[in-house]
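Q: what sequence does this backbone want?
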């Protein structure tokens, strides 16, 4: 078992401590006493995490596609990544017109095809034994 030190820079609500953007990660303060330097155990819900992974990957794909179509001035300002949805906040000089929006969608779809092909190629190289890794965009 490994341990980690929890660092809470701020909380959204004085009655709870939020350990992530998902409301399920908010814990009422009355449930525990946490002090600086306390050791805690974190457990990852693998089933839920596996449902989040595709949306997390799409944040990288979307960031690439936005910058590719709109320009390098585009900057990610935040995101919420949950099993059933993805929200991606970004800065831009103005609204995105329909043609550019279509190009962003096409670029994202193309990148997903490329990632899928590379994953299949990596599986073939490893005799079908895939190890999931990260590909930087």
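A:
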């Amino acid at each position: 078992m490994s341990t980690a030190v929890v660092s809470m820079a701020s909380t959204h609500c004085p009655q709870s401590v939020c350990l992530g953007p998902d409301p399920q990660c908010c814990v009422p303060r009355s449930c525990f006493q946490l002090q600086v330097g306390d050791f805690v155990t974190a457990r990852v819900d693998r089933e839920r995490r596996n449902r989040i992974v595709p949306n997390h990957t799409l944040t990288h794909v979307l960031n690439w596609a936005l910058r590719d179509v709109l320009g390098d001035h585009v900057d990610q300002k935040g995101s919420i990544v949950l099993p059933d949805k993805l929200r991606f906040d970004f800065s831009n000089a103005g609204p995105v017109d329909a043609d550019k929006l279509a190009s962003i969608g096409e670029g994202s779809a193309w990148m997903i095809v490329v990632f899928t092909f590379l994953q299949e190629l990596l599986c073939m190289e490893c005799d079908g034994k895939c190890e999931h890794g990260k590909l930087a965009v």
